[in-house]
Amino acid sequence: MSGLRTSLHLATCIALPLLAGEAWPAPLKIALVETLSGPQASTGLMFRSAARYAIEQINSSGGWSGEQLTLVEYDNQGGPAGASDKLKSAITDGSQIVLQGASSAVSGQLTEDVRKFNLRSPGKEIIFLNLGGEAMELTGGKCNFYSFKFASNAQIRVKALVKAMKPLNALGTHVYSINQDYSWGDDMEKAIDQYATLGGYEVVGKTLHEVNKIQDFSPYVTKIVASKADTVITGNWSGDLLLLMKSSKASGLKVRFATVFLDQPGNLGNAGEVALGDYVAHPFNAEAGGAAGERLASDFKAREGHMPVFIEPQAVFGVEFLGEALKTVKPQDGKLNTTALAKALEKTTLETPLGEMTMRAADHQVLLPMVVSIVSKNAKYKVDGTDMGFQPIRTFTATEAATSTQASCKMPRPD
Description:
Blueprint: H1 2-19, E1 28-34, H2 41-60, E2 69-75, H3 80-92, E3 97-100, H4 104-120, E4 127-130, E5 147-149, H5 154-165, E6 174-180, H6 183-194, H7 196-199, E7 202-209, H8 218-227, E8 231-234, H9 239-251, E9 256-259, H10 267-271, E10 279-282, H11 290-304, H12 312-326, H13 338-347, E11 349-352, E12 355-359, E13 366-367, E14 370-376, E15 389-396, H14 398-401
Parallel strand pairs: 1-2, 1-3, 3-4, 4-5, 6-7, 6-8, 8-9, 9-10
Antiparallel strand pairs: 10-14, 11-12, 12-13, 14-15
Helix pairs in contact: 2-12, 3-4, 5-6, 8-9, 12-13
């Protein structure tokens, strides 16, 4: 009899939600289509750490409608073609949301693949969350309703650098622009020109060079010397930034570097004191975030083994933003309605340690706070095992950091 009573009790418990007209939601799969192996994997693995951390936070708070989020990882092997293939696998496996960030070229491929799939599959749309691809075209000509960009862009970065450095007389009146020869570098070169009037400087030289193929930057340094530049503004990353700075030091060149990726792990450790006095514009600095920034940094370090740096904070915020939006979307027939989620993302607000973050509905460009920091031995948090770190000098609200929408963004919306 006790077994019969137990069975009846279980049957009643299962039936109650059904009688109330509710349905248990199916597990929500989120695909990470990222570079997880090979020589360019270091950044992709950081996006994975950030996504894992943020999804664990969401799940610890109840997940989505009581169901845990499931992160499924796909190695795109560093290229657009591999990412396109892995996206197909992710869709076949039932993923409704896709995360990626380590390459603007891959972001461009995925956003286009998502657009085409959604056109072919009404009622089964998937959402792409771009956590790191910064190319302007991603919220310009390639903008679409089901793609959301949680990264900044060249205009936002350069504007922040100029507005922070000029009042300190750290910008000077002669700027040299050197960048990598692809979409990102082209965006940077245009932004450096665009903000010349605001910064009160003249662009005295420009260089676009091959990406991660140059071992000797001394010929470019010779051009910088000849230009008599006060400051070099560059969007270079990885070895191209490090080797440029080292060649400048070796030549005795006395210029300031205004950068956007100097906080990439290993840069200060490899550059050494040549980096002192240089600047970086980035979406997060734990010191600038005060007590909230310290809590995020210490919790992330406890779980992932290191402080959140480089692209990790913005990726964490992007996934946490998703978690906030999901709170407002209820299951329909036990499933996630991704069109409803896309509309919710447009209305979501996330409070970060640096301030409020929102999504601009017109082009799906995130509006996020930015901070400009200087490399200093007085920084609270040291990096790369050195006695140096990034000391914040100015923080911009999301509104202050924002730049205009691009006329090239034509975003058809669902009825």
